[in-house]
Design goal:
- This protein has a domain at 95-139.
- The protein is elongated, with a radius of gyration of 24 Å.
- The chain is built from 7 helices and no strands.
- It has helices spanning 8-20, 23-31, 37-43, 45-57, 60-91, 93-108, 122-137.
- The protein is 76% helix and 0% strand.
- The longest helix has 32 residues, at 60-91.
- By secondary structure, it is mainly alpha-helical.
- The N and C termini lie far apart (66 Å).
């Protein structure tokens, strides 16, 4: 006898109803994790690397993107993403400033070689690249 299973629309509706009412549970879980998130994530680095390698060997990323298609991304980004983007930017402004400060400091203390004629200013570009790379690598 086949397993009795509800149809996908019914299951999805129940999931949406229950999940959308779980905001307080979500917050509680974030504030009271069973294990430290950062330590657990760092400890899982070898598993992550293995999973990424496996996905790459199966070309899973390209297959998933192709299966979803541009229309799905565009519809979600232009509706849901557009509504949430300003809120996310405002919530992240302090983090952005903190992370950006070392780069701005490096650029503001940089003395570039003098300008030359068009096509001869690569040393100026390289000086900027080198300074920003040092910040990124923590040097």
């Amino acid at each position: 006898m086949p397993i009795q299973i509800k149809d996908a629309a019914t299951v999805a509706a129940k999931w949406a109803k229950r999940a959308s009412a779980a905001g307080a549970d979500y917050t509680s879980g974030v504030n009271n994790p069973r294990t430290d998130q950062a330590q657990a994530a760092a400890a899982a680095a070898p598993v992550w690397a293995q999973a990424v390698a496996d996905a790459a060997s199966r070309n899973a990323f390209a297959k998933g993107v192709t299966a979803a298609g541009s229309a799905k991304w565009q519809a979600a980004a232009s509706s849901i993403g557009a509504q949430r983007y300003p809120q996310g930017v405002n919530a992240g402004v302090n983090s952005y400033a903190t992370k950006e400060a070392p780069y701005l400091s490096a650029l503001s203390s940089l003395t570039l070689p003098p300008r030359g004629v068009k096509g001869t200013n690569n040393a100026r570009v390289q000086a900027v690249v080198d300074a920003l790379r040092k910040v990124k690598l923590g040097q």
